Amino acid sequence: MQFTCDRESLVQAVAIVERAVATRDAMYLLTGILIDARADQLKLVATDLELGIECTLQADVKRPGAVVVDGRLFGQLIRKLPGEQVQVELGDGEGLAVVRSGSAEFSLHTRPAHDFPPLPDKPAEDRWTVSQALLRNMIRQTAFAAAADESRPYLTGVLFEVSGEELRLVATDSNRLAYSKGLLAQPAAAPRQAIVPARTAQEVARVLQDDEEAQVVVSVADNHISFETGTARVVSRLLEGTYPNYRQVLPQEQPIRTRVPRDVFQAAVERAALLSRKGPAVVIVNVRDQVLTLSAREADVGRSHEEIPVVHEGQDGQNAYQARFLLDVLRVLDSDEVQFDFSEGDKPATVKPAGGEDYLCLIMPIRLG
């Protein structure tokens, strides 16, 4: 094997695939990156058997071949090479790859490529096409709400649901729920649900471009899913289980309705959360006479009180929420103004872009003793 390629292109490709390199040595090959050089193209592959990522780039291939190199070392090395081009050459029978760039030369031990576990074939049962920018934003605005506790594994994932031309993403940890919907490039052949691990969804979002014209093809089989952009493919197992019926908790109109500047609301919650020393920070939201008041109190620390002018409709009232839950959703919204609606008692609050109908986040209140 011998090839030459642009160093910056190689750096970008390795940065994509190394996210799937195994961090533990349960299977030695999984800590490596497969380099496959053929027909003026270089393919890099990494997998931990749960998540797999492959990326292709152009290269001047003098001798085709494939080899596995230590993923962590290779990634660190190419980022620090001095030249604009990188040449990699595999010696005959030596088990070493020689890496040259500028005035630098390194020899790296390699592993046999034929032992590297292949990624699953592209599923063909269900295929959807969607804008990369749209899917990237939908993932960013939902995946944060997935559960971290694996006692109910299906809640650690993001529900992908299609019917007709509509794609819906849902994530919940039972204390909050994020919901987003968008349009497919073409209607789906049949309704389908798939629970994608939140980690996979977040890695997909990192690969996708913020480009409305660029598209990603999503392919689903019984036990795995594939996201393909043309230069990169992310493959992951699906989570088993029956996802909760999220439609049952989507609220109708709530009695306390406000519109508030997003950045002002976010900054006020961040300030109130500073008082917390023990346990999660809790803020009390009170709405009355076109004013939203945020307050917090922590024994032996102090208290806060801040008033924000808002557009207020409906009833007056107050409730308490975990500050982190409010901040998580406020940080992923792009709108200048958000709609924050709630009720007193144990019903969830709703946060969504003002005037928007394609996204919402539900947050359960906290009972104060």
What's the arrangement of secondary structure elements?
Blueprint: E1 2-6, H1 7-17, E2 32-38, E3 41-47, E4 51-58, E5 60-63, E6 65-70, H2 71-80, E7 85-90, E8 96-101, E9 104-111, E10 126-131, H3 132-140, E11 157-163, E12 166-172, E13 176-183, E14 192-197, H4 198-207, E15 215-220, E16 224-228, E17 232-237, E18 256-261, H5 262-273, E19 282-288, E20 291-298, E21 302-309, E22 311-314, E23 317-322, H6 323-332, E24 337-342, E25 349-353, E26 359-363
Antiparallel strand pairs: 1-5, 1-7, 2-3, 2-6, 3-4, 4-17, 6-9, 7-8, 8-9, 10-15, 11-12, 11-14, 12-13, 13-26, 15-16, 16-17, 18-22, 18-24, 19-20, 19-23, 20-21, 24-25, 25-26
Helix pairs in contact: 1-2, 3-4, 5-6
Tell me what you see in this structure.
The chain is α+β, with helices and mostly antiparallel strands. It folds into 3 domains: 2-115, Roll (DNA Polymerase III, Chain A, domain 2), CATH 3.10.150.10; 126-247, DNA Polymerase III, Chain A, domain 2; 251-363, Roll (DNA Polymerase III, Chain A, domain 2). Helices cover 17% and strands 44% of the residues. The chain is built from 6 helices and 26 strands. The chain has a 13-stranded antiparallel sheet. Strands 14-11-12-13-26-25-24-18-22 form a 9-stranded antiparallel sheet. A hairpin with a 2-residue loop joins β11 and β12 (166-172). α1 runs antiparallel to α2 (71-80), α3 crosses α4 and α5 (262-273) packs antiparallel against α6 (323-332). The longest helix has 12 residues, at 262-273. The chain is elongated. The model has no long low-confidence stretch (mean pLDDT 93).
